[in-house]
Write a structure and sequence with these properties.
The protein is mostly beta strands. The protein is built from five helices and 39 strands.
Length: 511
């Protein structure tokens, strides 16, 4: 490490320490009702139509347009009515989601226990997050006045020697939506010097294009686009300066602050009155993809307020601080020019491709309870998750579990449920169930179960000639198939053997 780098690092540490050295006083926020469904964006304290959150190490979190989480690191997420499904390394876990007032709960469908609880205040800010799975954790967030970002977070966990860690935040950079891009973090409370530290945390956010309902609810008559007479547009008299000043008050511009080269984005020009003619200035720095004219009517304090807007979809061709295209608009006989607006365009960031940790078939084990009293029983369930159309079980190993009686619960048939995800779908079915009755107090180790099975899936030698393929199947049983093709192409059934294993589990028995 060079002396210059070392001095710079010490200066940054000193600067952040100085920022955090001043006491910040904030009251606990009240927890009264927040209306509406609490989506995943709100749970992660994000504002606006965020599509991705990217960290320097390549960690990626993605949302759909409704604010639902679809991917985070190696986990994929899917929602069906009030149920949330998490797919990780081929294992699907289901949770029931309950949103009531200012509280969101997630309840495990396996154990029926509350595993997550989020509480919000009347301003819509998350003030507490409880995690019920072992080890139990609690996060509390504290705010100053009406600020939307917390200045402090308190983290409690039984496994931490000190019991509590406190995080103090100083926000160094925010975007137009008010989401932080860079912040200083100071941690205190840990017994290890490695825990008590000061550092800078950075992230990059991407947003979806401006939704239609942001500036419009009713389609209106479209004015003349790019038909304004050039003799008026090129008039260089003093009236142009006057028109420019009028434009500053007659236009509101909505645009992102930062984009990447080749990334599609939208800018919106919102006008307080209906234009007669609109001319879009050309720019060699951007590629024009589409434009859309819209009108909006709203009732504000009993008065009807109308506005008009033009939304441009663009793509930046080069990096740098670029000036966005402007509008020349005629309201009646007056010429208005929109104010100039700059945007930062950077090189496209290469995010490391996530490894596909979702194999064709997995075997998972879950316990109905992880802690019981002596004399009680727990149910051990084995589930198969697969992307193949049929799984034939050849052999299931049943390991000996010390100090425990094992009784298999007969099952008439396996009920399968299809769970759709981004890149396909998976079938999940309960395969075996066992009743475990411990004979002494203590900790019981449940070693991995192993299953040898035969997988069957379709392959199409001439996939490019297919028009449609539809399959309906009963896993571990008969298969019915319907295939519609442009030409007579028969699917081939490919079979292969696979060995899968569960993870180890622990059952705690109290006297």
């Amino acid at each position: 490490m060079t002396r210059k780098t070392l001095v710079g690092g010490r200066f940054l540490y000193f600067l952040l320490s100085l920022l955090f050295s001043y006491p910040v006083v904030g009251a606990d926020v009240s927890q009264s009702g927040t209306s509406g469904k609490i989506n995943d964006r709100k749970v992660q304290c994000l504002k606006g139509y965020v599509s991705e959150v990217v960290y320097p190490d390549g960690t990626l979190t993605k949302f759909n347009e409704e604010g639902t989480l679809v991917r985070s690191k190696h986990k994929q997420f899917s929602y069906e009515e009030n149920y949330k499904y998490v797919l990780e390394r081929g294992v699907i876990t289901a949770f029931e989601v309950e949103c009531s007032g200012n509280i969101r709960r997630e309840i495990s469908c396996d154990t029926e226990k509350e595993v997550e609880k989020y509480t919000f205040d009347e301003e819509g800010r998350m003030v507490e997050h409880l995690m019920g799975s072992y080890p139990a954790r609690k996060y509390q967030y504290f705010f100053q006045g009406t600020e939307t970002l917390p200045y402090k977070k308190v983290y409690c966990c039984d496994t931490i020697p000190s019991g509590t860690l406190t995080y103090y935040y100083q926000y160094l950079k925010k975007d137009q939506e008010g989401n932080w891009l860079q912040r200083g973090v100071k941690i205190s409370g840990g017994s290890s010097p490695a825990v008590n530290r000061v550092y800078v945390d950075t992230r990059r956010l991407k947003y979806y294009a401006i939704p239609t309902d942001v500036i419009s609810s009713i389609k209106g008559d479209v004015p003349n686009i790019n038909s304004y007479e050039q003799k008026f547009l090129n008039n260089n008299n003093s009236g142009i300066q006057k028109a420019y000043k009028q434009g500053e008050t007659n236009f509101e511009i909505i645009s992102p602050e930062r984009v990447e080269v080749g990334e599609e984005f939208e800018i919106a020009f919102v006008m307080k009155q209906k234009p007669r003619d609109i001319h879009i200035s050309k720019s060699k720095q951007f590629e024009f993809l589409h434009y859309d004219y819209r009108t909006n009517t709203a009732v504000v304090k009993g008065d009807t307020v109308k506005s008009c807007g033009l939304v441009l979809k663009l793509k930046a061709k080069q990096k740098g601080i670029l000036t966005l295209p402007s509008l020349k608009v005629r309201f009646g006989s007056e010429l208005n020019i929109s104010p100039s607006r700059e945007i930062i365009v950077s090189d496209a960031q290469v995010v490391p491709t996530l490894k596909d940790d979702n194999p064709a078939v997995t075997l998972s084990a879950t316990l109905s309870k992880d802690t019981i009293h002596l004399g009680e029983s727990a149910i051990l369930s084995l589930r198969i998750c697969t992307s193949c159309f049929r799984v034939t079980s050849v052999h299931l190993s049943k390991p000996d579990i010390a100090s425990c009686m094992i009784q298999e619960i007969p099952m008439d048939s396996v009920i399968w449920k299809n769970i759709p995800f981004e890149k396909g779908s998976y079938d999940v079915g309960e395969y075996k169930k066992f009743k475990l009755t411990p004979t002494q107090a203590g900790t019981i180790e449940i070693f991995p179960f192993g299953c040898d099975c035969e997988l069957s899936r379709f392959t199409f030698p001439n996939a490019g000639l297919l028009k449609n393929v539809a399959t309906s199947s009963t896993l571990l049983g008969a298969v019915a198939t319907t295939v519609t093709t442009i030409v007579a192409v028969k699917p081939k059934i490919e079979k292969r053997n696979e060995s899968v294993h569960t993870e180890s589990l622990r059952l705690y028995i109290l006297p």
